[in-house]
Each structure stands twice: as C-alpha cells, then as structure tokens.
Amino acid sequence: MGRYTGETVEQAVASASKRIGVAKEQLEITIVQQARHGFLGIGRRNAIIEVSVNKTQKKAEKHEQIQKSHNTKRQSKRQRDLKPRYEPVKENEVDPAEMKRRHEQNVKRVKKVSQDLAKYLKDVFKNLGIEVNPIIKDVRSHEVKIDLQSEQSGRIIGHHGRRINAIEQISNAFMNYLGAEKTTVILDTADYRQRREESLQQLAERSVMEVVSTGQAVFLDPMPARERKQLHQELQDNPHVKTYSHGREPYRSVVIAPKN
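Structure for RNA-binding protein KhpB, as requested:
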C-alpha cells in the first residue's frame, strides 16, 4: 500500500495508476484526505489517497498469462506434429541438374517413339498407294517434326490439306499411346507448312476486307489448332475485326467478325 496526492482524488488515482503500472480498475482506493480549494488560496489542500492492487484481479491476470503461455506451447507442438518429415520440393525449386536430366529423358523418349512413328507412317501411306520416306527433322521434349519425302506430295497433302492434317492427328495419338504424352507432331512435305502459312496470311487479309465491306462475320473452313492459332495472332491487333473459334474438333474453325 502507498500514498499518492493530487489536486483532486481523480488526479491522485491517475498518478497512482501510472506509477504502479496497472489500470485504475485494479486498484483498491482509500481516501485519506479530500481536496479543498480554500478561499482565495487560503486553506487550500490536495487530496491524499492510499492504494493497493486488487489481489483477485492480479491473480486472474496471472492465470490468464499462464493460460496464454500454455496455449502457445500447445499450438507450437501441434504445428511441429503436423509438419511433414520431408518438405515437398516445389517445381520452381528443382535442382538445375535434375531439370536437365528430365529434359534429356523426355527428348530421348520422344526420339525413340518418333522412330516407331516414322515406320508406322510409311506403312500407312503404303496402304494408300503412296511411297513415302519419313525423315525426322527436329526432336524436342514435347515436339517432333517429320518431313514426308515423296514424289506424290499432292496426294499426301490432300484437298485443302485434309489428308496430312488427319494423319497428323493420328500421329499425335500414336505418340501419346506409346508413352510420349503431350507431344505435338508436325508433318510436312514439299514445304507445305511454309506455303500454308503464307496462304493463311492472305486468307486473313481477304477475310478482313470482306467483313469490313459487308459488316457480316466470315466462317472459315475447319482447320488444325496450329493454323487457328496463327489466324488469331495475325488479327489480334486489327482495329476492325475480332476472331474466335467455333465448333468441336476436328471440325473447329475460326470466325472473323466485326469488332463493334
């Protein structure tokens, strides 16, 4: 217990609370002397109080602190118990050497399956009466390019490229079935793919002119996803038209429509 003074009882209580470091509600207060203002300063006196900390409140606070401490310890232990013994390795944290090994393994797998595909393609075209010599031009982890060398390139391509595109889809399924999942096969013959890209550029230009002049959308013939992607990219910045794909595979096509 200690004594504290102030011009008023309230000031004395505030002083005691600050000095002891506890809230006013936790103090037991005994007023020893009431404050008096006096007359013209004569007989003026401060308030005097005696204070002590409420033991019940103090025990409750101590119990609360102990409980919080126990809860924190239990939570830390629970987190340690739940933490896996071995932290999983995130994809972006894979060791560069491991990434290189995986890449080389994928390329090796694609190369092996593409060799089987080349033999398969030779047999397929032979049954169609077309002599073909499939040459593997480029092998990547998820892509392979095969040049179908032949004196009958026109028959390999088919009307509007339908035959080569159809066999290309079969080739993708072949690669996936034999373990080279998600591998894109690009078949070419007599530089058809390069000539086709140039034709698509011209097709895009003609279609834009038609859309602008008529105000009507143009529905193109079905084409492979790679060619649809080229058309979308060709016209993505065009201020007059917009493009979107329509239908389901293998009959999915590009639509070129007025932007507004």
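The CA atoms of residues 219 and 255 lie 5 Å apart.
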